[in-house]
Amino acid sequence: MKMKLYASVAAVALGTAAQAEQITVFGPWLGPDQEAAEKVLAAFAEASGHDVRYTGSDSFEQQIMIDAEAGSAPNVAVFPQPGLAADMAARGFLTPLKDGTEDWINTNYAAGSSWVDLGTYADEDGNDQLYGFFYKVNLKSLVWYNPENFEDAGYDIPETMEELIALSDQIVADGETPWCIGLGSGGATGWPATDWVEDFMLRTQTTDVYDGWVSNDIPFDDPRIVAAIEEFGAFARNDDYVAGGAGQVASTDFRDSPKGLFSSPPQCYMHRQASFIPAFFPEGTSVGEDADFFYFPAYAEKDLGAPVLGAGTLWAITNENDAAHELIEFLQTPEAHEIWMAEGAFLTPHKGVDTGLFADAPTAKMNDILLSATTFRFDASDLMPGAVGQGTFWSGMVDYTGGADAGEIAAAIQSSWDAAK
After folding, report:
1. Rounded Cα gap, residues 100 and 144, in angstroms
2. Hey, which bits of 350-391 come out as E strands?
3. pTM above 0.90, yes or no
4. Average pLDDT, the chain
C-alpha cells in the first residue's frame, strides 16, 4: 500500500540523507504489531529514501545480545524493557542519541523527565547518557468496572484514593463486594500483586524512593516499601472487599478474575488491571459500553500529582549509521505516532498528536490518562533482577495474601536480592 507522505516527515528527511542507506531494525513484534510497525517504517523509508528492513522475534532478548557480541547487531533495536538496554549500554553496545533529544523529550512528552530518566544509562565509563527513545507504551494504572452496575447502584467514579476507599466501603455497606482480584498465572502466579504494590509505591512515596527501591539502593524491607505492600493488603486481605474472600485471591486465575463484573448479580464492582485485560472479558463485551475504566487515583492528602505505572518499548541505536539517527528523529514527528494510532493497540506520551486519530474512543481515553500523568514509572518488577522481580517478589506476594507478615516477606525478598548480587 502506498504510504501518505506527511509534510513534517518529509521535513525530517530533507537535506539529511546525502545518499540512501540500508537500515535494519530488530524488535519483539510479530503479527499485527509487526504489520503496524512496518507501516510506520514504510513512511520513514518513503520520506528518506532509505532501504528500511524490520525483523521481529519472540526471542528478541536473547538474540540481540548474541548479535551484539558477534558484531552483527542491527542498526536499531527495539527493547521491551529498559534493563537489557542498560546492560548493553554499560558494555558499549549502544550509541548515545544526538544532542537535543533530551530537550525534545522534556518538552514534547507528558511527564517528559520520566521518559528521559527511563532512557538514560551509564556507559562503559560509568557516565550517564541518553540511549533510549520510548515509542509505543502501555498503561497499568486502571480500574475496570461495569457501567450498568454503577448506574443501577448510583455509584460515582472516584477521583481520589480516599474516594475509592470510601466507595469500596459503601459497596460493602450495601451488602455487595467491591473487588475481584486474582493472582493465578501458572508459573508466573503472583505478578498481578506486584502491579498493585508498584502503584501504591507511586501513590505513597516520591519517585526517588520508587527509583531507589528498583535499584535496591533502598532495601526491599525498608518500612516505606513494607507500607506499600500493606496498602495492597488493605484491599486483597479484606474478606469484605474481595469476591470469594481473601483466601481465594492467590488461587483465582487473573484471566478469570474480571468475569465477576459481568455476572448477574455482579460478584464484584471493580477490577484493577492493565490495558490488556479486555482480551479476557466475556465474548462480545464492548469496552466503552458493557465495560469501562477509570484512572487508579492518587491520594489527595499525599499531593504526589498523578503518577502512572506502565511499560513500553524503547528504540536504541545498536549499529550506528546516519539513517539510524534519522529514524530516531522521525519518531519525534506526530505522524510517526499517528500512523500506528490509527491501527489500534498504541498509546503515546507525545503531546503533539491529533488524538482524534486513535482507532477507537476507549484507546483515546486511555491516552488522555497517559497525557495527564505528572510522573510515569516503568513496571518495577520488570527492572529488578529476574530472581527477584520474576521470582521472590511474585511468590512473596502469594504468601502475603495468604496471611504472612509483610515485613517478614519483604526481608526474605531482600535476602534473595542480596544472594543475586
Report:
1. 39
2. 375-378
3. yes
4. 95
